[in-house]
Design goal:
The chain contains eight helices and 15 strands. The protein is an alpha/beta fold and about 260 residues long.
Amino acid sequence: MKVVILAGGRGSRLAEETSVRPKPLVEIGEKPIIWHIMSIYAHFGFKDFIVCAGYKGYQIKEYFANLVLHHSDVTVDLGRNLIHYHQSDKLDWRVSVIDTGLDTMTGGRLKRAKPYLTPGEPFCMTYGDGVADVDVAREAAFHRAHGLKATMCTVAPPGRFGTVNIEGERVSAFVEKPTADTQRINGGFFVLQPEVLDLIEGDGTVWESGPLKRLVAEGQLASFRHDGFWRPMDTLRERIHLNEMWNASAAPWKVWT
């Protein structure tokens, strides 16, 4: 099953980083977040990726074209015109980086991936800016079992503000980071049948509005509930927090070894 990663947006809310590189290349630890996302999928056996690039997409192409160089120590033998790689990551991924346009919306980017998909086969789709310890293999099995057109991973939103419990006129408890278990949001990890692409009109289509709403109206969107770790990287604060977890060897999304 192929994995489509939407990686073409401008990342304006993380402008401190994205003014010079695309958001998927912003690092957690010493590796870009897209590497972390792909490592999650690869751990569960999904290693054929289609990266939908746009803003500064040439940097994403250069990263994967030189991935071994980026992740290895090297010895350059100038006399014999040879490069020896040491301690390199031996990855068996297949990565297609495609230019889906500078201003194309999320749905349009997804539709532009169609020529690279396996005809008639379902595929995974996610964004290039969020990590989770979601079992994508179990989600794929869940998708095949229910027979609907689309499956969306749903998560409880992480609490951004502390709240208080009040009894009468007194505060009875302080909740540092609440989560609303009864209210869930799009966690960004999808499994889709190829016919959902027919719901996308063109480059100006936003996946999260028109197509998803039509799938809901048709009763064709299933919810795969994920109660584990999930975090986006939309802001500098979130990037700092993810790096703190990684540097402390306490990154829940690191499901690989």
